[in-house]
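Consider the following assembly input.
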Amino acid sequence: MTSAPDEAQRLRDLKLLRRVRDRMDREYAQPLDVEALARGVNMSAGHLSRQFKLAYGEAPYSYLMTRRIERAMALLRRGDMSVTEVCFAVGCASLGAFSTRFTELVGMPPSIYREQTAGATAGLPSCVEKQVTKPIRNQEAPAVQLHLA
Amino acid sequence: MDITIHSSMLPHEDPEESLTFYRDALGFEVRLDVGGGKMRWITVGPLNQPDTNIVLYPPSATPGLTDDERRLIAEMMAKGTYAQVNLATKDLDGTFERVQAGDVEVVQEPTEQPYGVRDCAFRDPAGNMVRIQEQR
């Protein structure tokens, strides 16, 4: 049984975590890292990582990278940007780390994804496209192709 | 059948804070305000849509909740995973500029989404996600 002051503190902490998460959604294209995020809410990086994972089921760095990959998928599907351009546009400083994480989440490297999907979702209803094209959090994607045709 | 959408409910934590957001930042009118203290039911809506309402309500007053459920709802609101509303405007950029000029939490600047909408997002003071998409 938690006491009222404990619960009030818990709600305050959760609100700070929400600010961190919203900041990642807002500023994912900036060179954000967990230290900077933690400083923004006066927490240590370790404490933030642990608390964030307890609240949202994944570590803040993982959330940030998933957000970036999600955006990268959208940019790659447009077909008018190179993989390197997309990598930097979504805030990743390292092409290697970007490609590795992209491959883990999407099931294929960004270059292949770009080749296979550029223009592929044109004409799909947007509600369907949102589901089909979302990266899978916390679960490395099996290497299957999207059947969008 | 002739059914319209009359009102939808969004939870508040502090009625004055939520009222400030919907009335002052979004420019909604206040149509009804009942109850008192933290237990207020405030009906708001856009001036140009008099038949559609959002009721800002105190979720802890919902009958039949256990203490655990009440606590869970409060925690989900705090972490921002409980409720959401999607609004629309013809002038997304102008709306975004006006709303963000207030003391509000921006979640996303106007962005072209791969699923065919262009939208921006704010967090209301109770932790609800407020997305605004461009009408086109």
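The two ends of chain B are 28 Å apart (CA to CA). Ask yourself how this observation constrains the way the partners meet.
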